[in-house]
Amino acid sequence: MSDKYGRKRTMIWASILQFIAGFFSVFSQNYYQFLILRCLFGFSNGLVSPLTSCYTTEIVPESKRGKFFIHLNNIFALGEIVVILLAILFLDNLEEGNWRALLFCTSMPALAALYFSFKYLIESPRYRLCCTNNKLYQVFQELNHMGYLNNANFLELKDIEKEQLLVWGEASYQRQKDKIGSIRELFKGEDLPITLNLMVMWFSISFVYYGVMLMLPIILIQYNDKNELDYSFVQFLGIFLSSFVEFPSNLAAYFTIDNPKYGRKKSMFYSYLLCSLLCFIVFLTQTDAEVYITALRTTGLGLNSAVSRIGGILMPWISFYFFKFGNAGPFLGFSIVSGLSALCTYIIKFDTSNSKF
């Protein structure tokens, strides 16, 4: 949608839907009402999630882009921890408690996102140049506005710079206009192997991430068979640990993602490989946004995000099947999926550390 209708407009409508679905979930009277509203909430989240990465790619300078992505991930992890603390406050355990109050609190960030989108969010200048051929005069106003926000001594764009941008934008638009928002284009030519590899990688991210978050409390409860710790405490502890450990991993990514020795591709490859090895060790012990052109960027991210949701949907059934291999059996499945993603990352032919797209 955002490749056709713009980043800002899509973000606003997605935030509206996210708030409405989240807020009215509080007042659900039966299972089917709740199911429909949570599906709408998930749909809106599937719109918002790729947009944040897309905006970062298009408005943050190349030299700062990688580290800015890490900051976004830290905010994501922080949000998870806040939700866990709210859950501890409102819920007795994962089966009982004031879930309506919890849903009410978790719907408020969408309202805040809607407010800030209206008040502060501007359309991506790169999108307006590369994917539209109207209102180009606004591009210069937006770029000058961004310049003043970052540097009070910013000098407005000169006429020759504006002309160069228009020429570049027109060339980009003519080259990409037939591809704007087309899912079919993701499976053509040089984009085909990229799309297939990224689909596997995104599937793996969702499968392993939510798998660990769901399965770790269950496994900890099984190991806590002597009731040494409170049942509800073990449940929340497993989810908290799954979220908190993102901070040290994000710290490692912060120092490697822009390092010439590693870059995007090697960082992902070693991360998937390490994840595969560690998950396999747990089993044994028993105790991108930059790779697509502007016209296809959010379409590609959206497709891969949808595939990752499929990973999250299939994860419980597959993970519970792996319990046949032991209490930590699901980690064998996580290891296999992560290893496959490491292979897909290795196959990708280029690194986007120096990408100009």
UniProtKB/TrEMBL annotation:
One of its GO terms (cellular component) is membrane. Residues 1-353 form the Major facilitator superfamily (MFS) profile domain. The keyword Calcium does not apply. It is found in: Membrane. Signal peptide: none annotated. InterPro entries: MFS, MFS_dom, MFS_trans_sf, Sugar_transporter_CS. Its main location: membrane. The keyword Membrane applies. It comes from the Eukaryota. It is a multi-pass membrane protein. The chain crosses the membrane at residues 12-29, 35-56, 68-91, 97-118, 194-221, 233-257, 269-286, 306-323, 330-348. One of its GO terms (molecular function) is transmembrane transporter activity. It holds the Pfam family MFS_1. Gene3D superfamilies: MFS general substrate transporter like domains (1.20.1250.20). Keywords: Membrane, Transmembrane, Transmembrane helix, Transport. This is Major facilitator superfamily protein, putative. It comes from Ichthyophthirius multifiliis.
